[in-house]
Fold these 4 entries.
Entry 1:
Amino acid sequence: IKTLRMQLDRYASRNYTAPTTAQGLKALVSMPSGDPKPKRWKKLMDEVPLDPWGNEYVYRKPGKLKPEGYDLFSLGPDGTESDDDIGK
């Protein structure tokens, strides 16, 4: 999660905003096709990693927990959004 946050911050500093929920974490790997189009996109990762249980991380912008920014977390071993999620 720390690595993803670091790359999301790099993306935002280059493009003046983090990727949207629709663009997702894949925007760190390949140029997003939807708006807003990043002005200074650069590939920041070779692939988006999975969480320790083999699932995709949850990414939302704007966030539900952090409406001014984004949410990024793992659903944990149960795979459902709940109070025991990792990274909230």
Entry 2:
Amino acid sequence: MSDQVKPVPIFDCHHLGTNVSLHYLADLFTEEIINCQKQDNHYLQIIVGKGLHSKDNEPVLIYRVRRILNDFVNSGFIKNYVDNTTNGYLIIYF
């Protein structure tokens, strides 16, 4: 029997743009985290992009994403996250 490594589940939100509300984004993350947990995953990669095509060369959703993830950590919904926005993504641990 071989040990198979599960691929990291990915949620790509960098295409959503700046008009998406904080609550809608939080609901999307919540749904995706619950789906990952049901599939016995313990982490999720969220792609926010590097901001290469944005006005200030910064991911447009990153402040909202960080706020949501900080709220999730504070409430105990997730354990923690790693912010790797210089490479265009974050990893959530739950």
Entry 3:
Amino acid sequence: MYEMLFGHSPFRSLDSNNRQNNLIRNIKLCKYSFPDTIRVSEEAKDLIRKLLTKAPEKRLGYKGGSDIQQHPFFRTINWDDLYARRLDAPIKVKLNNKKKQEVRLAARV
């Protein structure tokens, strides 16, 4: 979710000399921040914080997926309709015939 909203890993390192070591250290320490350059709701940030909690037993979802579903970020989602595929996609992409064929072939795999 963090990567979809901000376009990079929450644990990335900007130091090109020790990028890999710093990445691993940041993951171990659960060290990340939210860029000020991209506006994201407080509900989204709260969800990300709770999903990235270092201690598994304190992490959102540890007790099951319903904890995640009940988070305020998802308050507008009707989960029953989602599971039953009764919801329209928020963004509809028009595919040309070649792309449609590629999507069908990929779905078979």
Entry 4:
Amino acid sequence: MEKICGLNNIDIGESAEIIRLENKGSIRRRLFDLGIIAGNSISCVLKAPLKDPSAYLVKGAVVAIREKDSKKIIVRCKNE
């Protein structure tokens, strides 16, 4: 079963498909430059003890994203 959620809700080892970005301005452009665009696959590889930041694998690169920004990245993840 699939669910739609913010990127911050996926756990370490889980993968998801990016649906859309609700971020605005320069952070949105930065995320696009890093390959975080609709249709791409993304997986969580590491979460800091206080959940900020978290590291994600996208297009072969590991990217650290703050929780406030990852909440605005909407993904489709598989609920197992």
